[in-house]
Amino acid sequence: MKALLSVLLFSALTVPAADLPPFTVGKSTISFTTLPEQAQPDEVKWRLHSQENPEAFALAKEKFQLIVPATYQHADKWGVFIWISPGDTPSLPAEWEPALAARKLLCVGAFKSGNPRSIFDRVRLAVAANVGMREHFNVDARRVYVSGFSGGGRVASMVGVAYADMFSGTVPFMGVNFYEDVPAGDGKTKFGLNYIPDDEVLAIAKKFCRYALVTGEKDFNRGNTKAVFENGFQKEGFANVTYLEAPGVGHGLPPVKWLEQALTFLDTGKGVKPAETK
Question: Which among 32, 133, 224, 275 is least buried, having the fewest CB atoms inside 10 angstroms?
């Protein structure tokens, strides 16, 4: 499995426009038929260092919502924004759609990938979307991002590290997991580890990938997000991570400007510094 790393590190599939499947501009529902090797049970178990075995998974029966902006052209490379929802539908705020289009990002998210679903399935759906989009569109492989809200943000934060050779950037909103126990600011609470990434993949995450952790001033997960930023990502030496806190926002998706700031950081490694976000 480790042999995959040298092949997949932000790699692109070269697919002639004439060979690409037809697509619908706007919102549509699609399926991906073949479960990629990176989402097979043994691979997922290895990526997360899980003691449990993933259950059977039929990708062809899963549905995804795809958003293709009217400005998409096969001749141009576009990034991909993969969304993990905490509920059954992958819908995004309407004001987010033009912001993603302006940054040349296709959007895809699985249905029925919410918090009640197996963590293994949620991971595999995001990974399958990654590979499937590269096969269907002219994808800029250095701009394949994974994101999510609340429980979906927690899964995205795991995928963005455990599959760092496939996702160049991660934006968890109002929920972040980490691979080590993280002490909170009060010196008493600890946020427990949720997975253990492979050392080789982790090295890629620390050096090459970008992480924008977004929370709200009134979000009940704020303490968790800030602790993971300071005592997790920063302490463990991740080269490219930022913390964004939206004033007055509780446990809900923030206004679009916070998405735009996060994407600026993922695209450029630059943007609003943590001290400037309040």
Answer: 275
